[in-house]
Design brief:
The complex is a heterodimer of chains A (about 375) and B (about 400).
Chain A lengths: L1 H6 L15 H7 L1 H28 L1 E6 L2 E6 L3 H7 L4 H4 L8 H23 L4 H24 L8 H28 L5 H9 L6 H11 L8 H6 L11 H29 L3 H9 L4 H28 L4 H6 L11 H10 L3 H35 L1
Antiparallel strand pairs in A: 1-2
Helix pairs in contact in A: 3-17, 4-17, 6-7, 7-17, 8-12, 8-14, 10-12, 12-14, 13-14, 14-17, 16-17
Chain B lengths: L14 H6 L9 H28 L4 H5 L15 H8 L6 H20 L14 H33 L6 H20 L4 H18 L10 H10 L5 H14 L6 H25 L4 H8 L4 H12 L1 H17 L2 H6 L7 H7 L9 H36 L1
Helix pairs in contact in B: 2-17, 4-17, 6-11, 6-14, 7-8, 9-11, 11-14, 11-17, 12-13, 14-17
The chains are: A mainly alpha (about 375), B mainly alpha (about 400).
């Protein structure tokens, strides 16, 4: 004990040069700080501080004047106008009375969520865990209600559900196809190295270029599939005026770009699965599908969950493709929340723009951390055990 | 193991077995191979076709684009260079002299920027056609942002992997409160932002030194790492309005430096995340022995650690470079004319009275994506193996 206290150095002044110390030594003594300070400063200044400052915009009516911006605090009015006021149609969608299908869907989801919460309580989840589950359940309930009141009741939905559509449907499709391609390329197919390089390329291409390329290819009068459109009788059809066609075509472009990402990560994961397990199962006469389900899938599950989390985080930020391919149209049918906020900013409506941006942040954080806590963490824990 | 060999692997196989059953362990049956090939070929076509269409459209002209689809150059249509010539011929200052002048201008303005705290050197005004301007801007900004991001990010990642930090939770709360009060003061009580900001910072250091001793709860390295990495969740649109205001207040809108800083911060989480993994997996003995020999931490980092992680560093750099090259949203907000980047320049081509001129658009898209495609093909092996999997597993 006494040795330890003797070797610890008392008396070095915390800042400034000590007697007989060179600048190099001073720098080295403070290297702890100098290594991490630039990163922390940059993040604080350009990520954390602006995030707080956006609140000021989100709770104000902002007006331009000769001396600069004038803020009039209106507290939650901007947020309220997204949900109930003049932005409601744009953000949430149009509402009429709820259809039977809507009620059924709402009740089913509500029952499932209640069962899920009940199980969490019965298992003795901690208070923090319960609070998190309540938030996730509330968000899920709200989205389910919104979905029933718009799509299932035959109404148009707004930018919130557009964004979720890109995230949920887009990411699912990309995961399914990416997994299939990775699985095929992990088999002893001839020329798989060539396919690997080829399939990787779309990821690198500027999203803007992807948007224009698909806009051009999907053109029904001049595009390469013009004979096909003629043949099926859609020669004069403009897909950009059809809400669902436009949404699916944006997902098509997005998938073309992002499947490579999922493909390349899952392929690397599949190649890390020990070969002897697979071969032993093959000798025992297991079919490829059985081998995949029983041996390969459990081993790649942690990586698969993580790669989906990364993909989802990026998918929430989607803006280039809808902006280029349809400018958010027809109407607002393909507008994502980022694009919604961008358009409001262009209209000099900074309060609403900041409010929409904040709602996007809340949505992203709740959905992604729910996915992380209930899907990714569990898989990682299982893999470590 | 039973004595009889598995029926699949006997020497003489029936026709059905030849088709459907693999000839040996680790091989595929004929039908499975054919199906796999069919799917992979179909996907190759799907991947290649948009690229092929962009490439051939870049060599078409108004007639061959508008009169229905033509697929094969020299057979269906005669390729021309009209789309390419249009990029350079319509604007003035697209000659060799202007390109040379632009390079001189970049060097001159960089030098002027570096020495600006000491001496004031006159900056040159760009006088060059848009394509070259956007291209040089894109190069300067994406390389600058990548360099900044890698330098700052890998230092932080190394520190988080090797040095243990224990920030006091109370100090963080104090910092947040002071930042909020600085925002309120400058926004609602007309205090100049420089005054409120520096007063808040001074108060923070004072309070952290005095009050900080009393706080007990500390956070660890993993908390800091999670905090930095989780910034990637933040949608850019949330921060862009205040960032715009900040740069406007110091008159840095439409400058390279503004974009370099913003891009670097946006990609910092990725760099810290990936590099932390590489550093944490290095054997610590080398560093310990160097420390015993009296090397400083900076020397260890520069001479030992960085060379050891060179493959990972290269892959991370490449990934960051590509993300910076492709960035669109920040550039919309923060550029108007001078710091115009390639994606903004391409998006601006959209507005024409006669609709989009696809042959010109495709030519410029090719100019835009050529560098990244070359990098991707040359270095895809590094990106896939070195970076993504390691990080995703960790």
């Amino acid at each position: 004990m006494s040795e330890v206290t003797a070797t610890s150095q008392p008396g070095i002044s915390p800042a400034g040069l000590s007697r007989g110390e060179s600048w190099g030594e001073w720098l080295d003594r403070h290297s702890r700080t100098f290594f991490i300070a630039p990163a922390v400063t940059l993040v604080l200044l350009f990520a954390i501080f602006p995030t707080f400052y956006t609140v000021v915009f989100a709770i104000s009516h902002v007006r331009f004047s000769a001396t600069g911006l004038k803020f009039r605090t209106v507290w939650l009015e901007n947020f309220a106008s997204q949900f109930t006021g003049n932005q409601q149609v744009h953000f949430l969608g149009r509402f009429t009375s709820m259809s039977i299908a809507g009620w059924v869907f709402t009740l089913v989801i509500a029952g499932a969520l209640l069962w899920w919460l009940y199980r969490a309580v019965a298992r003795g989840t901690s208070r923090v865990g319960l609070a998190g589950r309540l938030i996730s359940a509330a968000m899920a309930m709200f989205i389910a209600l919104l979905f029933s009141a718009t799509l299932l009741s035959g109404n148009q939905w707004g930018t919130l559900l557009n964004t979720l559509f890109y995230v949920v449907v887009g990411c699912s499709i990309q995961f399914a196809i990416g997994l299939m391609l990775a699985f095929l390329c992990s088999q002893p197919v001839i020329g798989k190295n060539f396919f690997r390089v080829l399939f990787f390329i779309p990821l690198m291409i500027t999203p803007l270029g992807v948007g224009y390329a698909f806009k051009m290819i999907l053109d029904v009068t001049k595009g390469p599939f013009q004979p096909f459109w003629q043949f099926v009788g859609l020669g004069n059809w403009a897909w950009s005026t059809d809400a669902w066609a436009a949404r699916w075509f944006i997902i098509l472009g997005d998938s073309w770009q992002w499947i490579p990402f999922i493909f390349i990560v899952l392929l690397a994961a599949l190649e890390n699965v020990p070969k002897d397990h697979v071969e032993a199962a093959q000798v025992d006469g297991a079919s490829s599908f059985q081998i995949f389900r029983e041996i390969t899938w459990p081993q790649i599950l942690p990586v698969a969950a993580t790669v989906m989390l990364i993909r989802m985080i990026e998918a929430f930020k989607i803006v280039d493709l809808p902006n280029i391919m349809t400018s958010g149209g027809p109407g607002i049918a393909t507008e994502s929340m980022t694009l919604h906020s961008l358009f409001l900013w262009r209209a000099n409506n900074m309060g609403d723009s900041a409010a929409v941006a904040y709602l996007l942040l809340i949505l992203t954080v709740v959905v992604c951390s729910s996915f992380f806590n209930y899907v990714v963490v569990k898989r990682l824990r299982k893999a470590r055990a | 193991m039973s004595g009889t060999p598995h029926p699949t692997f006997k020497k003489h196989r029936s026709f059905r077995q030849r088709l459907f059953e693999p000839p040996a362990v680790g091989k595929m049956s004929l039908v499975a191979n054919l199906v796999a090939w069919a799917i992979l070929l179909f996907w190759s076509l799907f991947v290649l076709f948009p690229i092929y269409w962009v490439v051939i459209t870049a060599f078409k002209d108004a007639v061959t684009v508008n009169n229905g689809p033509f697929f094969i150059p020299f057979v269906d249509f005669q390729p021309t260079l009209k789309g390419w010539i249009a990029q350079f011929a319509t604007d003035p200052y697209c000659d060799a002299y202007s390109i040379g002048r632009q390079l001189v201008l970049l060097l001159n303005n960089l030098f002027a920027f570096i020495v600006s705290p000491v001496v004031k050197i006159e900056r040159m005004e760009p006088q060059i056609c848009k394509v070259y301007l956007a291209y040089t801007n894109s190069f300067v900004i994406s390389f600058g942002a990548t360099a900044l991001c890698i330098a700052v990010g890998s230092m932080a990642a190394y520190a988080l992997a090797r040095i243990s930090y224990k920030p006091k939770f109370g100090n963080i709360v104090v910092f947040v409160l002071l930042a909020l009060s600085a925002i309120v003061a400058s926004n609602y009580f007309d205090v100049h932002w420089a005054i409120s900001g520096s007063a808040g910072l001074a108060l923070f250091f004072l309070l952290a030194r005095s009050l900080g001793r009393r706080f007990k709860t500390t956070l660890g390295n993993n908390d800091i790492l999670f905090w930095i990495v989780s910034q990637r969740i933040l949608p850019p649109i949330v921060v862009i309005i205040p960032v715009y205001m900040m740069f406007q207040s110091v008159r840095m809108i439409d400058t390279h430096l503004a974009l370099i800083i913003v891009y670097a911060v946006a990609n910092l989480p990725i760099v810290v995340w990936l590099m932390h993994d590489f550093f944490a997996n290095l054997p610590i003995e080398l560093e310990e022995s160097a420390q015993l020999d009296g090397s400083s931490r900076f020397e260890i980092f520069w001479d030992i650690v960085l060379p050891l992680t060179r493959p990972g560093l290269a892959a991370t750099t490449l990934l960051t470079l590509i993300l910076n090259w492709n960035e669109y949203l920040f550039a919309i907000f923060l550029t108007t004319a001078r710091a115009l980047t390639m994606p903004i320049m391409v998006a601006a081509k959209n507005t024409g009275e006669r609709g989009i001129l696809w042959w010109e658009m495709c030519a410029i898209i090719m100019i835009m994506i050529l560098p990244v495609i070359i990098m991707a093909i040359v270095l895809q092996r590094y990106i896939a193996k070195g970076v993504l999997l390691g990080a995703v597993k960790g």
